[in-house]
Fold this sequence. Notes:
The structure holds 2 protein chains of 2 kinds. By secondary structure, chain A is mainly β. Chain A has no helices and 11 strands. Chain B is mainly beta. In chain B, 0% of the residues lie in helices and 51% in strands. Chain B has no helices and 11 strands. In chain B, a hairpin with a 6-residue loop joins strand 4 (31-37) and strand 5. The radius of gyration of chain B is 13 Å and the shape is globular.
Amino acid sequence: DQQVKQNSPSLSVQEGRISILNCDYTNSMFDYFLWYKKYPAEGPTFLISISSIKDKNEDGRFTVFLNKSAKHLSLHIVPSQPGDSAVYFCAASARNTGTASKLTFGTGTRLQVTL
Amino acid sequence: DSGVTQTPKHLITATGQRVTLRCSPRSGDLSVYWYQQSLDQGLQFLIQYYNGEERAKGNILERFSAQQFPDLHSELNLSSLELGDSALYFCASSFLLNTEAFFGQGTRLTVV
């Protein structure tokens, strides 16, 4: 049962344009969402997070939007740079359950930023 | 550098063998997680420890076990290895149970 889904395995965007990566979730208990970036042969690197009490969080070129009613979140990267080429993982956790809040990951989207 | 250290970086072993993967969390972090990433797959949660106690278990095989020691480092033991156990194994740590986790560089296990 894939509770966090990233339906686009890959995305190609031109340098300078906006990259939009999407993520859907099914578990209504999830209340904390994160994006990680992963380069080959390295561990995932935390990028940005959002709590379910917000619908937007911005950090520099990265903005995460959360639509709770649609159980959907997206990561916007503006402007996209060649160094952004990596695999992006969406993750979610249920912090309000009072138990261990393991991160449940999506399968990732490979972003390629072209010149 | 995330501050999470995993050793070894690479491991090649034969089927039926047993290996131990080691993780040192970031200084001050109390929670340790183990994830498995098979070829072109997502990150599958295996197990989580908080301050020495097991707190959550994912799809971890019975042949696998883990523990977190008093100094907060953790070990993942994989036994009776099969070809399908070949994967990247990541350790992550976080200060509390509900904050973002920081990942190590992973151990690439190859079972031949």
